[in-house]
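Fig. S4 source data, part A: sequence.
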Amino acid sequence: MIRFEKICDYNTFNNNETLHPLVSVVDLSKASPRQGSKMYFGFYTIFLKDVKCGDIMYGRQTYDYQEGTLVFLAPEQVAGVDSNGETYQPKGYALVFHPDLIYGTALGRHIQDYSFFSYQSNEALHLSERERIHTVESY
């Protein structure tokens, strides 16, 4: 299992520069081709997946996703990709932020109210083509 405790660790793994220690928008297309693996995240992660790279395992469930899907992870969660031994090129973006970024804020006090960060969710948020274009242009 690959462990990411800090934002800079995840940026390095994906060949992205770290501009701030607590938050980053990661361009996954800069990452080296890879095979599936399990990953531990010590921070909040929101993926906009732009490629189907195999089955995403989230907890003990298979995550329902396709190209253009948003995937949410809370700190201390494990997710992985089962690429059946195939090498794939990651594509899409990830917004990653450390819990310290929102500590003491209204968002920090209420983030547990957002159920899409919980392990019980195994149904991804699918974006329309228009939403995908708008989301990517916002970066």
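Fig. S4 source data, part B ends here. The chain has a mean pLDDT of 80.
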